[in-house]
Prior knowledge:
The chain has 476 residues and is α/β, with parallel strands linked by helices. It has helices at 8-22, 34-41, 45-57, 89-92, 95-101, 130-142, 158-171, 186-198, 213-221, 238-244, 267-280, 338-349, 354-365, 369-394, 419-428, 458-475, and strands spanning 61-64, 68-71, 181-184, 204-209, 225-232, 235-236, 250-253, 283-287, 312-317, 329-332, 399-401, 408-412, 434-435, 448-452.
Amino acid sequence: MLAPDQTRQQAVFDRLRQGILSGALPSGARLPPTRALATELGVARQTVVLAYERLAAEGYVRARTGSGTYVAPDLPDAAPAPAAPPQTAANALSRRGSVLAEIPVSAAARGTTEGSVLAGGLPAPDLFPLRSWSRCAMRVLRVMPAECAGYPPPQGLRALRTQIAAHLAATRGLIADPDCVVITAGTQQALRVAAELLLDPGDPVWVDDPGYIAGRGALIAAGAVPVPVPCDADGLDVASGIEMAPQARLVLTAPSHATPLGGALPIGRRLALLEWANRANAWVLEDDCDSEFRWEGHPLPPLATLDRAGRVIYCGTFSKTLAPGLRLGFAVIPAPLVSAFVRARTLADRGTDALTQAILAEFMREGLLAPHIRRMRTEYARRRAAVLSALARHAPRLQPIPAPGGLHMVARLPEGMDEAAALRACQDRGLAVMPLRAYYAGPPRMNGLVLGFAGTPVSLAGDAARRLAAALRAVG
C-alpha cells in the first residue's frame, strides 16, 4: 500500500530503489513491465514509467530497447552498512563545545515543552496585530526593495534603523543616531556579539542575581566569569558589585526591570554604576527588553540616556511588543564600536531577514506600533490583575511579589516547601511556571515560582490559580 504522505511516483521509486539497495532486486535482475507493475500497484502506467525514468537517470537501472529494464550490473549486491555513530555525543565535541553544550538558556527543563498558561516573559499570541501586519507585508511585497532579495545589509535596513531611532526618541527619551543602530536577531544576539568583542576568556563580569538566564549564558559562552551581584527591590546592588569585583570588565543588567524580581535602579544607583564603569574602563550592557510594560508609575528612561562617556550598549527587542518568532532586536552602539560590532554580527549569520525588517519598518512608518503597544498594555494590565486576584482567592499559600513592570511575577513558596517538587506538580497540571532557582547564578536566596500572565486570558485566570493550589496541596 502506498504511503499517504508520498506522491505515487515517489512511493514507486522509493520501493524499487530500496529493493535494489537491499539486494532483493540483485544486479542484472529484470524489472516487471511497466504495465504489469502499474496493475499490481493500482496506479497509472505513467506513474511507473516516470519512476523507471528517474531510476535510470540516477544510475540504478538500465533500459534495453525491446528487452526491458534491468538493475544496473555495477551496483553492489547489498546496501552498504550504516556507519557506526560516535559512542557518545561528548566524544565528538571539543572542550569548548562541551562547555557550550551545558550552558543553560532558559528555566525550562530539557526535553519539556512549554505551555502557555502562566508562562513567564512571553507575549500573548492572540494579541498579535495580524491584519495590519499582513497589510504591511502586502505593500512591501508589491514594491519589494532590491536589498530584500540579496544578502541583508550587515547593519540592518536603513529604513528600519531610522524608524527605531524615532521610536526610541518618542517613547524612551533616548536620542540615537540611526548610524549607531544595529539590527540583530533579538537581544540575545546583541549580547553575544558584544561579549565576543569586549571580553577575553577569564574576564570577570557582573550579572544580576537572580537575572536573565540566556544573557548570562552568552557571557559564559564568550569565556567570561560571571560575578553574581545581588538584586533587591531596587535592582542591581551596585555597591556590592564594586566590593565583589571592582575590576570587572563588563556588567549585564536590566535597569528598568530586573528579571525576574522586577526591581528598577533608582537614580543614585544608576549614577554610581555609570561612574564606576567610566572609572574602571568597563562596559554596561543594558537589557531593556520589556520596559514598555510598566504597571506602577511612569516608564523609566533608559540608563543610556544618562551615559556621557559612551560606556553603555543599549539592547532592545520586538520579541515582547510583537512576537519572539520574528527574531528582531537591535542595539544602540557607541560610535567607535559600530564598525567592529557590525563585522562581528555579520560573521555570525550574514544578517537578519531583510523582508521581515522591511515589513516592520512599514508597520512603524504607518504609526501602527505605538497604538498596538497601548492595546497590549491595557490588556496585560487586566490579565495581571485577574491573575493576582485569582491567586489571592484560590491559592492564598503563595506570596506573589507583584513586579512594577514586565510580563511575569515571582511567587514565594510556603516556608519549607521543596521548589523542585512544586514545579513538577505544576507541570503535571499543565502550568508553564518556572523555578526561581534557575535564575540565580549563585546560591538561591528564596524559593519560589516565576509566573507569567500576558499569555493567560482573564477567563483562564481562575482555573490556573485552582490548578496551582492543587499542585501545592499535592506537595504538602
